[in-house]
Backbone:
């Protein structure tokens, strides 16, 4: 069952007695739980007919006793178990699933994993209710996720702004939603989110950030790379060395894979290599500027500076000094390979 299928049934008020929400992506589980809390019962009925348990502090028998009750002045009661993965005797709910009360809607929020499908409890839930698997979405799906969120708010976003947002936050859906909510407060329906909006409302510089640093390195423009690096070092907490190096390594990994293919559409480049259209010109230029051997040298250089940043073979050079050396050597890989060894 997809998240859309789940909401479609709930909005049509086609309820089942038990819902198991499980998986490694907490965002969709939290959103679904919120829906059960606020949308199933009218506000006036929640005082008597909405009960929330927390797995760590609850016992299965208490949950069963609550589920066996009938609703007061309502068609249904909603019982939610949050953090169900911490309910030590969850398997004892088996007795309830064999004698379910149809007016009770039991929601089991099982985050950070999935319940064992071999257990009888799981089989009973899947027979009498709904199992929703909340899986992590792939990085390549994040721009589409951003587009969908903005579409709900009657907004759109340009390619550069989308890349800045996705690459800076990463695969943290809740954080992406928070930033989009923040941006949408300042825009009118029909407007397009731009890099200027990201810089102003999210706080990511549109010119001096790790993504522009990647592009400068790919184009072997060490002067521009140094200017960006100097700006980034004024805010080291937002640009830790380990993250900066990780992003540089990711860019050259993409380049190395891209070198071995022919012409591809922007959609194919994103789905196969996570190369965003806003960086396509830099990657195309890099294909001409770098040989395969040079990219392999870059990997060796990055590994060397990763070790030095951790204290190995380092005589006391600070992070800014290491990154400055790294930037120069990545732009000149063949002539500087092995210098620091």
Residues:
């Amino acid at each position: 069952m997809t998240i859309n299928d789940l909401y479609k049934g709930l909005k049509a008020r086609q309820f089942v007695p038990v819902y198991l929400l499980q998986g490694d992506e907490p965002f969709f589980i939290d959103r679904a739980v919120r829906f059960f809390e606020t949308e199933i019962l009218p506000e006036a009925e929640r005082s008597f007919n909405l009960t929330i348990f927390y797995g760590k502090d609850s016992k299965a028998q208490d949950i069963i006793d609550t589920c066996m009750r009938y609703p007061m002045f309502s068609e249904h009661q909603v019982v939610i178990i949050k953090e169900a993965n911490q309910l030590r005797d969850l398997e004892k709910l088996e007795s309830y699933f064999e004698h379910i009360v149809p007016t009770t809607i039991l929601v089991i929020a099982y985050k950070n994993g999935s319940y064992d499908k071999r257990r009888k409890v799981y089989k009973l839930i899947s027979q009498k209710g709904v199992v929703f698997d909340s899986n992590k979405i792939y990085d390549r799906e994040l721009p589409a996720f951003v587009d969908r969120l903005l579409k709900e708010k009657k907004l759109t976003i340009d390619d550069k702004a989308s890349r800045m947002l996705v690459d800076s936050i990463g695969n943290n859906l809740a954080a992406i939603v928070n930033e989009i909510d923040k941006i949408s407060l300042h825009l009118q329906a029909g407007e397009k989110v731009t890099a200027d909006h990201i810089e102003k409302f999210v706080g990511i510089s549109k010119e001096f950030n790790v993504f522009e640093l990647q592009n400068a390195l790919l184009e072997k423009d060490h002067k521009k790379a140094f200017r960006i690096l100097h700006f980034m070092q004024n805010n080291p907490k937002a640009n830790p060395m380990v993250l900066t190096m990780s992003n540089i390594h990711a860019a050259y990994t993409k380049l190395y894979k891209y070198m071995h293919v022919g012409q591809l559409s922007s959609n194919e480049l994103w789905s196969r290599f996570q190369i965003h259209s806003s960086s396509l010109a830099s990657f195309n230029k890099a294909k001409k500027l770098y040989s395969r051997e040079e990219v392999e040298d870059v990997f060796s250089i990055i590994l060397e500076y990763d070790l030095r940043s951790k204290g190995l073979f380092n005589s006391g050079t600070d992070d800014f000094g290491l990154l400055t050396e790294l930037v120069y050597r990545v732009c000149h890989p063949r002539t500087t390979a092995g210098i620091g060894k």
